[in-house]
Amino acid sequence: MVRYGAPDARPKAYIQAALHADEAPGQLVAHHLLQQLDNADERGEITGQIVVAPAANPIGLAQFVNGDHLGRYDLASGRNFNRGWPMLADNLVGRLGSRLGNNAGANLALIRAAIQELLDERPQASPVGSLQTVLAREAYDCDLVLDLHCDDEGLMHLFVHPDIWPELSDISGDLGCRAVFSQAGSGDRHSPRPPSIPG
């Protein structure tokens, strides 16, 4: 992890690359981004906090079979590294009870504290599960999370929750996205999202 800004500064952004460890373009993007962030940091231009995981999946980075890099699935379990993330939202209602009120800032602080408790209580039953918990701990309290992926072919695109789509339209434009997919639930527990993006 590479960190910029004060540990408690806001807004906080988390960017991870190569969760599917054989998707090298994300690492290349992170490499160039880190150079730009280093320069911005030297000039004192970083406000808030930025955390970058340029190679988020050391397990997948180490997986080679007959000279071929296989980083999408864990070779030991067959599990896709970007599936089976902890469904923290399922436990938040019971954890928070009636403590939420009309103050959005106070509610967000309560939700983040409850998520941290749930992550701290999560059993570490496997290397992949442990990795996911480490990455989720970096992402859970962020205002923005970017999980960089790539494919053999396809246009630049984003997946966003419908509740935050208008706010992310600038980012999609800055990235040159040709498509934005909006879906309330991910269906199969993909990588971590900030609290404003359930599921």
Which helices and strands appear, and what pairs or packs with what?
Elements: E1 2-4, E2 12-17, H1 24-42, E3 49-53, H2 58-61, E4 64-65, E5 68-69, H3 89-96, H4 104-121, H5 127-139, E6 144-148, E7 157-160, H6 165-175, E8 179-182
Parallel strand pairs: 2-3, 2-6, 7-8
Antiparallel strand pairs: 1-3, 4-5
Helix pairs in contact: 3-4
Keywords: Hydrolase, Metal-binding, Zinc
Organism: Kaustia mangrovi
InterPro entries: AstE_AspA_cat (IPR055438), N-alpha-Ac-DABA_deacetylase (IPR053138)
Structural notes for this entry:
The protein is an alpha/beta fold. The chain is 37% helix and 16% strand. The protein folds into 2 domains: 2-85 and 127-153, Aminopeptidase (3-Layer(aba) Sandwich); 87-121, no CATH class. The chain has a 4-stranded mixed beta sheet with strand order 1-3-2-6, with helices on one face. A two-stranded antiparallel ribbon has the order 4-5. Strand 4 (64-65) and strand 5 (68-69) form a beta hairpin. It is globular and about 55 Å long. Residues 193-199 have low confidence and may be disordered.
